[in-house]
Write a structure and sequence with these properties.
three-stranded mixed sheet; six-stranded mixed sheet; 2-enoyl-CoA Hydratase, Chain A, domain 1
């Protein structure tokens, strides 16, 4: 990430401790082609692992935030994955029968891989703010629900579009959106595929704010990102971790988790620095998140 990297679906920059990750295929409505599913987790995990930013802002280009999954390539991705080992026997009836039996397992593997593309946003140690213009369609809803905060332009909308093409949303929408919207509303969106416009999304608490246009939205989101970046990164990390844990656990479990977290992570030096900086009317000097240890994969170092 320290050297410029060219991506097929994204443009990435880091300035003033804020990483700006931009979906950058406007001519194709930022549809989620195979490269998207590889690139997004690689970007987010590198920013997190190398502690390159204190906040991540995710935005887009063109008339729509994203048109969602590129269904024209989805089927071929499943059919062709890992089939190169079959060589010239791929037309053999027995081989084809065996491959057909594998399809369900391959689909399961593909979906779990795609799910992790969005889960990485939730697992990232720093806040992820998403700025939505136009439509967040289909997989776009899966994406934005995995972010910490959502912002929309006045003409933006979201739609669980999968029902309109005979699919059940399967990459992360339902486990997350049911914690962000009332169940009846979620079911209405899921069963009809209708568009939820920005004012309704704001009224229901799905988005933090609605802006008149994209320029105003990006300006407002960046100003909020700057404010977050000025706070203690270790405390922000703890807040995100505990809020997410609280969402998925009981109050009693979360209280116990907070006690354990504070016992190991509470930094009196950071508290003292925040108080001293406020008293002395100067910017505080907080410690950044540490670089993460590399994890071992089955093939070696990840």
């Amino acid at each position: 990430m320290r050297e410029p990297v060219q991506y097929q679906c994204f443009k990435v920059s880091v300035e003033n401790r804020i990483a700006h990750v931009v979906l950058n295929r406007p001519a194709r409505r930022n549809s989620m082609i195979p490269a998207f599913w590889d690139e997004l987790p690689a970007i987010i995990q590198a920013l997190d692992r190398e502690a390159l930013a204190r906040v991540i802002v995710l935005s887009s280009t063109g008339p729509h935030f994203t048109s969602g999954l590129d269904t024209s390539v989805f089927g071929s991705t499943i059919d062709n994955s890992d089939n190169s080992d079959n060589g010239d026997n791929s037309d053999d009836p027995i081989t084809m029968e065996l491959l057909n039996r594998q399809r369900s397992a391959k689909l399961y593997d593909t979906i779990t891989y795609m799910q992790q593309t969005f889960t990485c946003l939730e697992e990232c140690r720093v806040p992820v703010l998403v700025a939505i213009q136009g439509g967040a369609i289909g997989g776009g809803v899966d994406l934005v629900t995995a972010c910490d905060m959502r912002f929309m332009t006045g003409d933006a909308f979201l739609t669980i579009f999968e029902i309109n093409i005979g699919m059940t949303a399967d990459v992360g929408t339902f486990p997350r959106i049911t914690k962000l919207l009332p169940e009846g509303i979620v079911k209405e969106l899921a069963y009809t595929g209708r568009r939820m416009l920005a004012p309704e999304a704001q009224a229901l608490g799905f988005v933090n704010a609605v802006f008149p246009d994209q320029a105003a939205m990006l300006d407002g989101v960046m100003r909020l990102a700057e404010e977050i970046a000025s706070k203690a990164p270790l405390a922000i990390y703890g807040s995100k971790r505990i809020i997410n844990y609280s969402r998925d656990h009981s109050t009693a479990d979360t209280l116990d988790y907070i006690s354990a977290w504070s016992g190991g992570m509470l930094q009196s030096a950071e508290i003292n620095e925040a108080i001293a900086a406020a008293t002395e009317k100067r910017p505080p000097e907080f410690a950044d998140l540490p670089v993460k240890r590399m994890q071992m994969s089955k093939d070696g170092i990840a």
